[in-house]
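Check my protein:
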Amino acid sequence: MIGGKWLGVRSTRRFLANIEPEARRELNDEFQAIGDRLLGNALAETPRRYGGLVSAIQKRVTIGASLILRLGLLTRRAKSEFFYGYILDQGRRAGRANAARVRKDGTVERYLVNVGAIGRSKYNFVFGRRADFDANELPRLRSIFDRILRRASAGVGND
C-alpha cells in the first residue's frame, strides 16, 4: 500500500532490501496480521446478494525487495467475473443505458433504461481500507520500523 503521496518511499525500499532476516520476518508477520484485519473489515462491509463477490476478495503479502500488501480482486478470473465489485466500490454516475430484450417470436426489442447513481461512499468496502490503514495500522507499522531502526543503529560500531 506504499505509493503516491507518501514521502520516503525510495529510501524505505532501499532499507527493506538490506535489512536482516529477523527484521524481515517481523515485518512479514506484522503485514500478515494487518492484511488479515483489513481483509476481515472488507469482507464484513462487502454487499452480499449471492456471496460470489465476498468469496473473490483476497489478500496477498509479497516478500521481496519491498513488502507489498494487496487487497481486493487479485486474480484475473476474479477481476473478470466480479468486475461489478469495482463499480459498487468506486461508485457510478446516473444516466441512461441501452438495453435489449428478445421476444418469444425471436425479434429483438431495444430500449433505454434509467440507471441510478451509486455514491462512492455507499459501499467503499475495498477502497475504503486505504483510509482505515492510514488511521489504524500505520502507527503500529511505524513503531515496528522505529524498533528495527533502533536495533540496527545500536549494532553499528565505529570501526
In short: The radius of gyration is 22 Å. Strands lie at 58-62, 68-72, 95-102, 108-115. The chain has six helices and four strands. The mean pLDDT is 85.
